[in-house]
Amino acid sequence: MNERFAPLELADAAYEREKNEAPSLGFLQDSWRRLRKNRSAVVSLSVLVFIVCVAVASIWLTPHNPNRQQLEHGNLPPRIAGLSIPGFDGKMTTRGRVIDKYAQEGIPDDVSYFLGTDDLGRDLFSRLLAGVRVSLLIAFIAAFLDLTIGVAFGLISGLGGERVDSVMQRFLEILAGIPNLVVMILMLTIFKPGILTIILAMIVTGWISMARIVRAQTMKLKNQEYVLAATVLGQPRWKIALMHILPNISGVVIVQMMFSIPQAIFFEAFLSFVGLGLRPPNASLGTLLNEGYKAFRVLPYQMWAPTAALSVIMLAFNLLADGLRDAFDPKMSDG
Known about the structure:
The chain has 335 residues and is mostly helical. It has a domain at 44-64 and 125-328: MetI-like fold (Orthogonal Bundle), CATH 1.10.3720. It has 14 helices and two strands; from the N terminus they run H-H-H-E-E-H-H-H-H-H-H-H-H-H-H-H. The chain has helices at 13-19, 27-37, 39-57, 101-105, 124-159, 162-176, 180-188, 195-205, 208-221, 225-232, 237-248, 250-273, 285-294, 301-328, and strands at 91-94, 97-100. A two-stranded antiparallel sheet has the order 1-2. Helix 5 packs parallel to helix 9 (208-221), helix 9 (208-221) packs antiparallel against helix 12 and helix 13 (285-294) runs antiparallel to helix 14 (301-328). The protein is elongated. The model has no long low-confidence stretch (mean pLDDT 79).
């Protein structure tokens, strides 16, 4: 071989610098790396995964039947067998005296209620698990509606042309002008209070914010070079929307969807609390708050558990949404 064509030495400094460079990361990998640096978001994600697993497992495993009534066990305070922690020892203060409610009512030692019972003797812990399951069901339905109706409406409006966009936006403004409470009252004239009524109310107005955000992002991206190139090559609009627009706005869609979930949970809890949502004996966080509110001055433990559960779920979803917003934003510095 001619010496003038001999390969360079592998120990060359420039080659070593290129060799030691870190591998490039994709969008999702880089977003996950950013998310892991946000401790509050990671903790919130862990809490939500635990709550979802417990809620799903409660379909088959609960200490008691959440709707079973035992009047002789009514208004029992929380008790955990083997623990003498105040507040979880089965004792309560009545007229300035501390009494063992379980011993007074003749409850066997092997019967304990972790969060106590209501006035009908129903286990509040089992009802709390059922209520969390209903709230998460409402939340996931809201997310599904955002991903289907909201995203589809926004993409069609953004890519459909000026006339189509004008008609669809006027329709959106009409829906946005109807208060949710009015929608619920109209739903109650046709359907009975329940999950179906709440879902129908969200179908009417719950996806509007997502549609507006997706439409704005679509209008921003549809004049980019890669979209114009796909148009020139003859690709149909639905393929441009699914292959070029949607992947580039997926971060914004996920963040907005995460913010809509706690709003749906609070929407259900508020409606059930005022009597427009689920009705007893069906358990939800709203119905548990309504029942605990009535006896709050005498038996405050009946309201603390659903209040804490609702606060933790909403806080975890909001913190996770904040972390996802920072992770999906490429302009955020690593700090």
